[in-house]
Write a structure and sequence with these properties.
It is a single chain. Helix content is 65%, strand content 0%. It is an all-alpha fold. It has three helices and no strands. The protein starts with 14 loop residues before the first helix and ends with a helix. The chain is flat.
Length: 78
């Protein structure tokens, strides 16, 4: 199991806004200060396109949702 962080906006956000945010966040992740801080904290960095992030989140939901539902049902049955 891993913890990950991503940026998301509301549904229907303008494509130009999404693309610019992705570009600017990618640029920030590439700066020495951010790289050094993430390295010091033990974080791995990975830049993804908006489509790649969406696919990643969908895979994570598909992977972990069954376990979360099972644990929630077990807790409710106590």
């Amino acid at each position: 199991m891993t913890t990950w962080f991503g940026f998301a906006g509301p549904a229907g956000l303008a494509r130009t806004t999404t693309e610019r945010m992705n570009r600017e966040i990618g640029a920030a992740l590439g700066t020495k200060a951010v790289r050094d801080r993430f390295d010091a904290d033990g974080f791995e960095r990975a830049s993804m396109s908006p489509a790649e992030l969406t696919a990643f989140v969908q895979r994570e939901l598909a992977k972990w949702s069954p376990l979360a539902k099972k644990l929630t049902a077990a807790e409710a049955g106590k």
